[in-house]
């Protein structure tokens, strides 16, 4: 037989007041039932916890040790209750976030830092994936949220635009157009282009194709690479050229030179999450991302007026 929670609470109250009558009054019970509970507790433990005297009670050596341990148990129990409430309210727990490599160089650092400062007890687990894998991971529950390129509407998936950024050209450092004072995209019409496969990121692929068509040519696809880092590495080694979201310039990859485009297409970084996701930490995360979006929009608007 083990002590009950009530017995532990009652024992601590008697120990702290040093008087069974005062403890009974504090616990809002009568003295005889409290005395019986203390006696039952001593029987269960096989040890005397109190020394009785006319003016009250004092702890035995066994009682002193039991008081230390009881207080620790009650503190742990209170913490356990607080943890449950925190998890249920979204203030504590784990949130699994996936994103493309491009997003890792644009909005993801903002999100990670703000989330750490706002929800310090919610662990953010991050995975980098290609867009098609992100969608699958959202739908099967491996991810709570994902940041990727805008895609066609998917049933059961909510989305929120976080950032719009232009396409830019990525050239090998030894490319002839690097020295040109007035770079024009059509000057790359004879170059092989390195792109992501359309099945991996259809919206990005279509935006790149449309950008070239606006410049008057259809790009020669020299190589397709699902991993964005591979696209950049191939450019750095002179395999071809690429059109990429502007945030990838932050990668500062050696051997790659970046050029702005006239009338560039804009690509969108979207936050996506499943309507079936029940993670209590998700609503707060979505609200936080919405706040970050508003700040980024304001910063871009301010920059465009300068």
UniProtKB/TrEMBL annotation:
One Pfam family here: LysR_substrate
Keyword Zinc found: no
Domain of life: Bacteria
Domain annotation HTH lysR-type: ranges: 3-60
GO CC annotation, single: protein-DNA complex
Keyword line: DNA-binding, Transcription, Transcription regulation
InterPro entries, A to Z: LysR_HTH_N, LysR_subst-bd, WH-like_DNA-bd_sf, WH_DNA-bd_sf
Molecular-function annotations in GO: DNA binding; DNA-binding transcription factor activity
Record family assignment: Belongs to the LysR transcriptional regulatory family.
Protein name per its UniProtKB record: LysR family transcriptional regulator
The species this protein was found in: Raoultella terrigena (Klebsiella terrigena)
């Amino acid at each position: 037989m083990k002590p009950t929670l009530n017995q532990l609470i009652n024992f601590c109250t008697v120990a702290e007041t040093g008087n069974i009558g005062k403890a009974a009054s504090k616990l809002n019970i009568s003295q005889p039932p409290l005395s019986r509970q203390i006696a039952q507790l001593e029987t269960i433990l096989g040890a005397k916890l109190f020394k009785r005297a006319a003016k009250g009670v004092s702890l035995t050596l066994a009682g002193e040790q039991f008081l230390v341990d009881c207080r620790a148990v009650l503190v742990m129990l209170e913490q356990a209750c607080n943890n449950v409430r925190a998890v249920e309210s979204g203030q504590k727990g784990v949130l699994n976030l996936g994103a493309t490599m491009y997003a890792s160089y644009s909005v993801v650092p903002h999100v990670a830092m703000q989330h750490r400062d706002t929800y310090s007890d919610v662990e953010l687990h991050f995975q980098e994936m290609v867009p098609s894998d992100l969608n699958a991971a959202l739908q099967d529950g491996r991810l709570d949220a994902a940041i990727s390129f805008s895609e066609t509407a998917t049933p059961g998936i909510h989305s929120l635009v976080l950032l719009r950024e232009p396409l830019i050209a990525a050239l090998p450092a030894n490319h002839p157009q690097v020295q040109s004072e007035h770079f024009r995209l059509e000057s790359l019409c004879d170059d092989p282009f390195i792109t992501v496969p359309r099945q991996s990121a259809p919206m990005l692929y279509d935006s790149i194709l449309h950008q070239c068509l606006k410049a008057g040519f259809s790009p020669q696809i020299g190589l397709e690479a699902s991993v964005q880092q591979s696209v950049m590495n191939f450019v750095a080694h002179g395999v071809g050229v690429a059109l990429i979201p502007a945030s990838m310039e932050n990668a500062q990859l050696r051997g790659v030179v970046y050029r702005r485009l006239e009338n560039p297409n804009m690509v969108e970084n979207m936050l996506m999450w499943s309507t079936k996701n029940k993670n209590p930490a998700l609503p707060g995360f979505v609200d936080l991302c919405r706040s970050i979006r508003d700040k980024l929009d304001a910063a871009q608007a301010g920059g465009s007026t300068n």
